[in-house]
Amino acid sequence: MNYFIALIIIYCLLFAVLSWRRTNLALAILIFALPAYLIRFQIGFMPMTLLEAMILILFAVWLMKWMTSFVALRGSSPLRRTSERGLAPQGDKNGNNKIFSGYGWLILLFLLAAAAAVFISDNRLAALGVWKAYFIEPVLFFIVLINVIKRREDWNLIIWALGLSALAVALPAVYQKFNGFGITTLSWFSEETRRVTSWYGYPNAIGLYLGPIVVLFFGLLWLQITLRLVVPPRSGQANRYKCYKSSLQITNYELPITNYQSRFLFFIFVVIAGLAAIIFAKSEGAIIGAAAGMIFFSVFCLNKKNRIVSLVLLVSLILLVSLIPSTRNYAVEKATFSDLSGQIRMEQWRETWNMLKDGRLLTGAGLANYQQSVAPYHQQGIWIKDKSDPDWLKKVLFNEEYRKKHWQPTEIYLYPHNFFLNFWSEIGLFGLLTILAILIKFIADYWSLKDVEIRKRYLVLMAVMLAIFIHGLVDVPYLKNDLSVFWWLVLGLAVSIQDKQSK
């Protein structure tokens, strides 16, 4: 254990040095290491993860650099202040503080709701840990992100880091599919019912992380093809097209990793590997969410010709599903929550609603207090309804063998597994309304964009957020270390797109 702590300390010191010298590169490494929350240790009485340590170090270093540059500028000559403008946040053209870039009051209200939920909770120590990891630190990450991403090169660096992070999760999952290595649960390990888990302890974590990333890279892949990434050749050139090429400046060396061909192949690889991992994990919510995001992008972002093709393919798929009895029944079961997982979710939501309306409609249960609060309303199990059998209830009452077969014990999960109920139960009605207001602002900001290319990039992020929301209707898309940071990463990228227009 001492060697482990020593390695953590050495890594954190090196990361601090890198954060000071190359903040954008340190930010990219942090994004690559989003799954590093699985590496846990303790500082005194405070539990900590490697991801949290990186966020706190990066923010502290950025804040020191900001304060140093601010003091230096105030004490310098007017000529130097003009030449060095941009070292510290200056605000946008509308005067909004760049610290929060237009989200200021909403973020403060969101954090206030989360802080109040700490005091409402019966488990204050655990609530403080959740408040720190899921609310404070992701917002600190957001502040650094929107102040560091200033150039196209910074954007490219972030995208490559996120893609490599996705591959670091997806490729082990694909490997597990063929040999089951590292899968500890017997029902998931069995070849007939295998569900991969990658570095995580459960399959749905793969879908929650990779689903939105697949949508992001699917959208960026199409933008690679359609938006000024190939240019006509000059007269006399033999080739029909000349590929657009840029480069990232890392220290004193140019690393040409953003040329058209490498980006194109990399994006395809991320999408294929990510989709394969989600399918092998059998994360149905992630599959549906990713499909919704890609359909949204295809309908609203592509040009007229491609949009028509997408709509024709979509209608054809719907007709194909409706005409094949097996796929039609499967789709109806999922849409009506008639299958096993759907009925369990419905029971969860009923219990959560009963808990909330019993004196907790405004406050919720408090952070890290859901399981304890919902326990008095929890049913030990449910009878699985077979809607295809009109006599299922009679069989449950009078057929002992049928009754045993259709009884499903249920557990109390950490969260209700629904986007609205998750936030409502954790940070109260006010907190839920605040996060919805942030979402509404994120969507409304699209209409302020004028440039066509920028609007299309923003639509990609809207497709990503839609995938998160759709999956979140049956799961927990925010209340987890990597997912909360990813949520604010999407918002930060949206802010960087808006800033590009304002310049």
Write the layout of secondary structure elements.
Elements: H1 2-21, H2 23-32, E1 40-43, E2 46-49, H3 50-74, H4 78-83, H5 104-120, H6 124-148, H7 152-179, H8 186-189, H9 204-226, E3 230-231, E4 242-243, E5 248-250, E6 253-255, H10 260-281, H11 284-300, H12 304-323, H13 325-336, H14 340-357, H15 370-374, E7 381-383, H16 392-398, H17 400-405, E8 407-409, H18 419-444, H19 452-472, H20 481-502
Antiparallel strand pairs: 1-2, 3-4, 5-6, 7-8
Describe the overall structure.
This protein is mainly α and 503 residues long. It folds into three domains: 82 residues, no CATH class; 196 residues, no CATH class; 148 residues, no CATH class. The protein is built from 20 helices and eight strands. The strands form four sheets. It has a two-stranded antiparallel sheet with strand order 1-2. The chain has a two-stranded antiparallel ribbon with strand order 3-4. Strands 5-6 form a two-stranded antiparallel sheet. Strand 5 and strand 6 form a beta hairpin. The longest helix is centred in the first third of the chain and has 28 residues. The termini are far apart. About 10% of the residues have low confidence.
